[in-house]
Each structure stands twice: as C-alpha cells, then as structure tokens.
Design goal:
Layout lengths: L2 H10 L2 E5 L10 H16 L4 E6 L13 E5 L7 H18 L4 E4 L12 E4 L4 H4 L6 H17 L2 E4 L2 H11 L6 E3 L13 H11 L5 E5 L8 H15 L4 E5 L7 H9 L6 E5 L6 H6 L3 E4 L8 H8 L4 E4 L4 H5 L4 E3 L4 H13 L1 H14 L5 H15 L2
Parallel strand pairs: 1-2, 1-4, 2-3, 4-5, 5-6, 6-7, 8-9, 8-11, 9-10, 11-12, 12-13
Length: 387
C-alpha cells in the first residue's frame, strides 16, 4: 500500500469532537456565533472527518450542519462553575473515550483536563483577569484556578486578536508559538441598507428620529453607564431630537446602568431593546447615524465589524483590541471619559464629512476580516494539533 493511500485511509477515519454548548437557538452571542460560523464551514471542507458535536442540552437540528456530524447531548447542562467541572471532567472525558476522538476543539475557553486527547482551545479574552470585580464570585474562582491549567494543557491555543495573543502569553506564560490568531468575522446579512428601510426602522424603533446605536451585553464592563451619561450631556448641549437605542441582554449586575439612566434628563430618548431578533439587528445597525461601542475591554468586538459592513460610522474605545479591529475607521476615545464620548457623539452628529470619511475607511478595514478567513485559520490550527 502506498504512503499516499495509507494517509487517505487515516484521514477518512479521523474523529474530531467539538464543544458546541453555545449553539443555542435564537440565543447566539459571541462564542455561539464563532462556533456556528467556523464549524459549519470546517465540517463541509472535511467530509472525510467524523465530527462529534457535544451539546449540554437539547439542540436545534439546524446546528447539525452535515452528514458527517453526530450530535450528542451530555449531562448536566453546564451553566454554573460546579456544573462546568462536572460536564468537562466527567461527561466530556467519558464521551471522548467512547467516541475515540482523535482531537477535541473547544471554542469557549474551557477544556477537559482528564484526557490525553489533543485539544485545540479557543480563548477569546481574559476579561476576568483585568476586571475581576465584574465577574460573579464562583465564576471568578473557577476562572482563576482552571484557566491557566487549560491554557497549559491545550495542544494549541487559538485567539481572536493579536492583543489577546499577547495577553494570554503574558498572563499565563503560554509560548507565543503555541497561540494562533484567527480573528472573527461578520455575517453576510450585515450590509448597507437603503433609505426606505432606514425610514421604516426609525418609524418602528425611534419615533422616526436618527439614533445612536449600541448592541451587546448590558454589563458594567461594556461601559453603558458612561455611554448613557455622555448621551445625556450631548442632548443637553445640542438639543437635538436624536435617540439612543441599546440592544442586548441585561447581564449580571446592572446597578450602575440603572443609576445612570435614573439620573439622565433624557430618559424619553433612551430605549432598552433587550434581545432583538437576528434578522432585525443588521437593519437596526444599518439605519443608525452612528454606532457607539466604548467598552472598557474586548478580546475583539464583533459589532465593530458589523458596523463597518453596514457603512455606519463608529465611536469606540482606544483600549485592548478595539484599535486593532477598527484601524483608522473610527473615532477612538478614552472610555473612562464621559466628556470624550460626548464630544465624539457631537462630531458624528454635526459633521457629515466626518461620517463619510469614517465610512470610507471602514469599507477598506472590513476586508481584513471574514468568517471564511477565520474558519480557514482555525482549520490550520487544527492541523497543528492533528497533522
């Protein structure tokens, strides 16, 4: 038998297990979208591989992307640190043995320590290291104890920005050559929208007025309280009819957000939309006068790409990965400065030339990122685990 033929047979029986517990119907967020967009491509590109998808609860059939995918539900649902441990160290460990996995891909930063199966671990960020007080007590204990062990145990680590690559290296002493940057991408339905759609969306969500837009978790780290205060000051100075629309779930403690809202004199012009249907988000983004994303920390920040693809000018923070993602295609501000955020909003509002310039730069910057590129880079990382 020729070596080439023997290699073909070896590839044909390769079994890849994947942690897909964040593939949740109608509730895909950052990690969920990363898993969805990368794995649906990878399973298509490698029909000779058998993929075992590990879910922690009943799954939607749309997540079984191809015939070479076998979905498996493992008990218990892993939504608490004690259950994280039970799921990964017992259920996943047992399943890896049962299905004789040749490799394990875990896209949520956690892995199974109780296995010798080569593992590709995706770590999106180390926010818990930089903002420990904004993580629930038991989760923080779990992260601090296990995350360094996970990073050391992994055969290869993938992350979503050069900033996060350097952060993982510095915080956990992981060799740089063990960390691949795969970036993130953006869904194809994020595109510029026409004037008719803009008018319809404004009538539906903002009483027909222009609006600034934010989408993401409503969480202290996302800096929504300063965004609200800056918007309130912007309203006082400009007396404009513009609105602020905030889309996303309320995550963990939101006391400072509520306080900022309660103290604002422009409450009537601030709308909390909570979850928005997936098909509505690109329309809301594309109809905005400006997208404001002044988070205190991000491993990447997918909504920044969404705004660029929708031809919407951006205000973002000048910290962590955000300057890397937007390049010159945004007004970058100190996220701790309400004044700086307000000034940027005023510039977007008053200066159409600034809006036009940022949109043009965004059309160039966005070409550096796509889910196709992300999936190919992740597949290459997998090759480093199982050549």
């Amino acid at each position: 038998m020729s070596p080439q033929r023997e290699k073909s047979i070896t590839l044909a029986v390769m079994t890849i297990a994947v942690n897909t517990r964040f593939l949740l119907k109608d509730r895909l967020e950052g990690i969920g979208w990363f898993t969805y967009e990368t794995m649906r491509r990878v399973v298509e590109w490698y029909p000779e591989y058998q993929f075992i998808f590990f879910f922690d609860r009943p799954f939607d059939e749309k997540f079984v992307f191809a015939k070479n995918v076998k979905p498996v539900v493992l008990f218990p649902p892993a939504r608490h640190p004690f259950l994280f441990y039970a799921w990964f160290e017992f259920a996943v460990s047992k399943a890896l043995k049962k299905y004789q996995a040749d490799a394990f891909i875990s896209t949520d930063g956690f892995l199974c320590l109780n296995t010798n199966v080569p593992t590709l671990l995706v770590i999106h960020d180390l926010a818990h290291v930089h903002f420990p007080n904004q993580v629930k007590y038991w989760e923080q204990k779990y992260y601090n104890y296990f995350m360094p062990k996970f990073a050391e145990k992994a055969s290869q680590v993938a992350t979503v920005s050069e900033y996060s690559r350097q952060d993982i290296h510095q915080q956990y002493n992981v060799p740089l050559e063990k960390i691949d940057v795969v970036y993130n991408g953006v869904r194809n339905d994020f595109q510029p929208v026409d004037s008719i759609v803009k008018k319809e969306i404004k009538a539906k969500y903002s009483q027909g007025q222009d609006y600034f837009f934010y989408i993401g978790a409503v969480h202290p780290r996302k800096n929504i309280h300063r965004l609200i205060t800056a918007f309130d000051q912007f309203k006082k100075e400009t007396n404009s009819p513009i609105k602020l629309l905030i889309a996303g779930r309320f995550a963990w403690q939101t006391g400072v957000v509520k306080d900022a809202y309660d103290q604002a004199t422009s409450k009537a012009d601030i709308e909390f939309l909570n979850y928005v249907a997936d098909e509505e988000v690109p329309l809301l983004m594309g109809s905005a006068l400006g997208f404001v994303y002044v988070s205190l920390f991000e491993g990447f920040g997918i909504p920044l790409l969404e705004a660029m693809n929708c031809a919407v000018p951006i205000i973002t923070a000048d910290v962590s990965s955000m300057p890397e993602v937007v390049g010159a295609a945004a007004i970058k501000v100190n996220p701790n400065s309400v004044e700086a955020i307000k000034v940027a909003m005023t510039e977007i509002y008053h200066q159409p030339e600034t809006r036009k310039e940022l949109i043009e730069k965004g059309q160039k910057q966005r070409l550096k990122f796509s889910w196709e590129q992300t999936a190919r880079k992740l597949a290459q990382s997998l090759k480093n685990v199982v050549p």
